[in-house]
Predict the 3D structure of the following.
Amino acid sequence: MTALAPPAGGGCRSTPVLKQRGQREVFCGLTGIIWLHRKMQDAFFLVIGSRTCAHLLQSAAGVMIFAEPRFGTAIMEETDLAGMADSQKEVDRVVAQLLERRPDIRQLFLVGSCPSEVIKIDLARAAERLSAQYAPRVRVLNYSGSGIETTFTQGEDAALASIVPVLPASDARELLVVGALPDVVEDQMLSLLSAMGVGPVRCLPAHRVDQETGVGPNTVFALVQPFLGDTHAALVKRGARHIAAPFPFGEEGTTAWLAAVATEFGVDAETFARVTEAPRARARRAIAQASEVLNGKSVFFFPDSQLEIPLARFLTRECGMTAIEVGSPYIHDGLVGPDLDLLPAGPVISEGQDVDLQLDRARAARPDLTVCGLGLANPLEAEGLTTKWAIELVFTPVHFYEQAGDLAGLFSRPVRRKQLLKLEAAE
């Protein structure tokens, strides 16, 4: 197994980071419920929030009226907001009704929102009390999905971090893969690891409570999402050890991630090559075909999902793009450091956001592609910039070899569309 060669001009790990604090354009952390409720089949996510929270979840999830999703909103009324109702009793009442109606629930998440945090409803105390009341049939946990201080992907981080302290202790030597993946992608990953002889392998989040693993000093874990800083800290606190690696986006990132795991478990180079050779070749062909239009183009990342640094590494190294600025809400060197090592030097690396100042830089640079949140995309399109919605990169399967071409296609489609529109206008 050969380590990826760093860029000829050096990477970006030592690049000074531009840190700005001002008005931000971020999406609500409740959004993580949309993919987590599909992944965790015996869980229910009860948001303690407003009608706005309920509308957000319904519209973001696209849930049909006759569906029975694994999430809901306990809507705070005027009496709750005015402090006229006992919030703890109200939470107890709603939870009792929910568990009576849905006996299939094995774990219940009480999810804080902007309104519940502003009036300081103590959901941690409620979760502790209710977990004792309904144990062992139901485990009740809590986390914050508020958008006041967090970005939308941190909802998943907060949810997984709330699970880690209640996992049983274990001395077993196991690999824990951390981060929610679509089932088809998770199956592909597990198949590759199994073919290399890596195991036992567990996933967090697990599909069901009874599939969860213990955690201890012999647990090693690998992250598949770069926004799991709190979960990483919680696992380290439990004694687990992190396998640092680039994230599995594109052929290079996937190979480097698998190689780090394989090295940890003593997989020989011949076995690694045999297992990865064919999917690597398919990924390279798919990326080359999808990214032809991206070669030589420039890209500017606004901070949104915390995927920005690994994606910039993918676009510059595998799709021939030049990064002008790579902005991320938070930069955790222990997580994205290996990707920064591989990202060619040159772009501004920025953490946090003063959106007006960053908009000025983007307008001055006139990049060929701007990756940003929904709130900025349409205004920038009106100014003639080509944009890519950052949130789509979270909702679409993009990890590992078989999705590498799809990942490149997400970026190439808006560029190709812009070219076609120019041709039509010229005619």
